[in-house]
Write a structure and sequence with these properties.
- The complex is a heterodimer of chains A (701) and B (183).
- With 701 residues, chain A is of the alpha+beta class.
- Chain A has three domains: 119 residues, Aldehyde oxidase/xanthine dehydrogenase, molybdopterin binding domain (Aldehyde Oxidoreductase, domain 4, 2-Layer Sandwich); 173 residues, Aldehyde Oxidoreductase, domain 4, CATH 3.30.365; 238 residues, 2-Layer Sandwich (Aldehyde Oxidoreductase, domain 4).
- Chain A is built from 15 helices and 28 strands.
- In chain A, helix 10 links the parallel strand 21 and strand 22.
- The radius of gyration of chain A is 26 Å and the shape is globular.
- Chain B is built from five helices and five strands.
- With 183 residues, chain B is an alpha+beta fold.
- The radius of gyration of chain B is 17 Å and the shape is globular.
- In chain B, a hairpin with a 2-residue loop joins strand 1 and strand 2.
- Classes of the chains: A alpha+beta (701), B alpha+beta (183).
- Chains A and B meet through helix 1, helix 3 and helix 13 of A and helix 1, helix 2, helix 3, helix 4 and helix 5 of B.
Amino acid sequence: MSAPATAIGREQPRLEGRAKVTGTARYAVEHPADGVAYGWAVQASVAKGRIVRIDTGDAEREPGVLAVLTHENSPRLHPAESPELLLLQQPRVRYRGEIVALVVAESLESAREAARLLRIDYDTEPHSSVLTEHHPSLYKPDHVNPSFPTDTSVGDFDSGYAAAEVRLDQTYRTPAYHNNPMEPHAATASWTDGRLLVHDSSQGTTDVQVVLGRLFELPAEAVRAIAEHVGGGFGSKGTTRCTPVLAAMAARQVGRPVRLALTRQQLFGPIGYRTPIIQRIRLGADADGRLAAICHDAISQSSTIEEFAEQTAVLTRALYAAPHRRTTHRLARLDVPTPSWMRAPGECPGSFALESAMDELAVACGVDPVELRLRNDTEVDPEEGVPFSSRKLAACLRDGARRFGWADRDPAPGARRRGRWLIGTGMAGAIYPARIPGASAEAAAGPDGTYQVRINATDIGTGARTALWQIATDALGVPGDRVAVSIGDSDLPPALVAGGSTGTAGWGLAVHRACQELRRQLDDRYAGTAPPDGLAVRLDTTDEAAALPRLARYAFGAHFVEARVDVDSGEIRIPRMLGVFATGRVVNPSTARSQLIGGMTMGISMALHEEGLLDHRFGDWVNRDLATYHVTACADVERIEAYWVPEEDDEGNPLGTKGLGEIGIVGSAAAVANAVYHATGLRFRTLPIQLDKLVDRLPTG
Amino acid sequence: MTEPPHRSPVRLSVNGRPYELDLDNRTTLLDALREHLALTGAKKGCDHGQCGSCTVLLDGRRVKSCLVFAVAADGGDLVSVEGLAEDGQLHPLQSCFVEHDAFQCGYCTSGQLCSALGMLDELRRGWPSVVTADLAAGPNGVTDPEIRERMSGNLCRCAAYPHIVSAIREAATVETRPMGSLR
């Protein structure tokens, strides 16, 4: 692994690959801890109300039980933090499944049994848990995530739409989605001399350190949070979650290290989920499909605890040209868990609606769906008026169409049959912001010719560790085997969470600059070799990132899907899916491909499998495990391919990279739904598309 | 007075090494490995036999160790992911997983590897699956449809599936050792 100055762009196996295939990579509750005790969370069994009595007697009599933490006896937390994290502080219940107690015991078995024996009585109140277009609590939030305007308007949508030759007005619905990383949320906490050490399954431990410090009123340096290996997150571990807080409270209470892992069932709520969304899309176009007017109205939900406003319609502000345009977001506050981040928040569900509507418009105009998107391409951001740093949507569409063999497609729906299978193809476009947050990084040279790069980045499976190592190796201009990268520890220079597809661009820039500066100092002052005491350079790129020119910065993509529908059973199969993306310079083709096909597969999952089924009587989902909440399995994925077009976006950021962790899911569910339409002639505007919705509507015989 | 918890002595061979344990009868094989033997390679993804992350080989067959009580495995011969490499040399399946980038977060990987080993053995024994065209004749080799079908008890939310399939396909061509020689 030594090839100076060419590491970027090379297929590089993951640095931690060996640790992962030998089972030696340690996750949050796998670190040795002397005298460790085990936590088990207890959840509210009512949707709304107040705890009036807790009988801990039976639970405390279970052998091995060390403590039962409830709002009556828990360590007090400083109330300045997010109310979501003020756990076990007060008797109110805001949603069914809210964590209301924590049992700590000598063993997992005792903790689990004691949790079962805990008796909690509630005064209940009527609850409201179903999102509708007319919910009385609907309001306009001040902004949508993370800081976008709630509504936007350019031109005059109403008159532009009224005057259009072709008009489309449809409503699309998506259910609650649960992130379900393979590693449930988990943490090990221990206190030593007033200092708190937490191994957390987190997408970013700088935030965990800061938040725990505030909650427990400790100086930041008294808290250390580590996430060396993380078993996936998909957004759900992006902000500090309940687990490190509860583990730290329990460890303080019993004076021993505590391991706390939520069960799979407990993930369905307390750690967040993607909100159900109702979206209305209106498109007005001329007979050739050129858009005159676009309107995207999105309604989603949050809890009564906190506002979480999914930015569902934001992608419609930048994807296609149209002189008259409007986007709006409204939010209902229900007696439900607080929704949270899930892969491509906003763009993922928003693209299902917009890209389904574009397919419907293509049909209405008699224009090929690829051609329709090409006709509505734009060189400037249609709302902001600024140029794109680079925009290769058209290249993705053309390259994808060529690779997929789209040119010969017969547009007629429900017209191809092979044996029992109805066959169709569909496509969709994709867009995702290319953000560049600042970060701190340190690069150090040792007298033995080795180099250490330190940054609190997190590798949740993205390949970040390896990509940063490639970037560092090139910037230092030394063989890779002399470079070590340390990440996943709040003792390292602070960096933003692994989220928003920002890692390679944001962390990468900080690593690049630190290594460049170290190289410069070594060359200028030490003739290229480190002095006997070594040399370290630490810098922060916040100012550099903030000073980048004002441009519209996005990654783009295009999905192509073949769907087969069994004419008798309605079973849907996806024998082929192909995506082409423009994501800037690709640092590691191997892990990039994995990220993209991972996102695309999650799109198949969203289109065909995943659905949080709410029982309104209880205000909770009835499917709370992996047997009933289906995610795509190995047999569901056949031929799936991801490619990228050449793009070195030096206007976007100095490394020319964009992110690619999320663009793969954007548009993918719409491409599947559009292919099902082409196969069957049946348009599905509500996900998931499952055989019970198809079977009575398919041709017989 | 509450009754004391019921405990039992449990003997296990794990990766060729004998262990004598005194365990709570409620302890699963998975928790015995993770919490009592510090072998954390087998993962807890669901604790309900739904995700496959805890898959190990028990007496040569793949099992979901979260669904087996340790007392029920008394006397058993167990291979976990920690037992696949020999003298620091990766098993061909492990090398192929690294080369094909057949994982991302790595949390399901131990289960995928153990499941793949058990699955390849089942294929060699001629056990049919739902995609086997001729049940009597048995599977027609290590084909992608057979791999996909037989590996569907091991979920991967990162969705490394196509790379898992290609890694297993390649490993099957170089791995000729019978299961018994794993240890």
